[in-house]
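Methods — Computational structure assignment.
A single polypeptide chain was analysed. Its primary sequence is given first, followed by the predicted tertiary structure written as structure tokens.
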Amino acid sequence: MMEDLNHTLFYLLNATPASPQWLIHFATWAAKDLIVVAPLLVVALWLWGPRRHVGQQRVMVMKTALALIFSVALSWTLGQLFPHDRPFVEGVGYNFLHHAPDYSYPSDHGTVIFTFALAFLCWHRLWSGVLMGAVALLVAWSRVYLGVHWPLDMLGGLLVGMVACLAAQMCWHHAGAFIAQLALRAYRICFALPIRKGWVRD
């Protein structure tokens, strides 16, 4: 039943040779490059911002890093336990994006971008979480549209992101102070010159 649903949704979303070229180009950009927005925003939140907010921003960044570690590890584990071929490997639909024929579930891109989106929603601001959620949905759509993932691969990525953010919050509750101390010490050693020059926040 789930496979039937997966195939039905895939055929509804997958591009065809008759699809507009501009939309395929846009989807290719979204599938390959849009995800870069998330780590750039996280780095900016760590390095800059109002002095009264930078401490809170760095807590969010550290929790996000923890969530990503958990989500990537869980995603890899699920991929080994429940291997599933990509649509083009099974000869289903049309493929418009070159990709290795490795396992598709859950989507690595989906896992990472949904983890970022949930992290912003839980630990930053509502508006930034909604914005990152829209970015995540666009990335998820684009990879199904181009034929390298099934819709349920993206749902799997969302669920993994949810579990990972919960695990990160629990880990932070027990070891957050220690993690923050280590991270700030390493940052101040590695970025001593930019900090002293005032290019980034202490």
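Note: The chain is about 75% helix and 0% strand.
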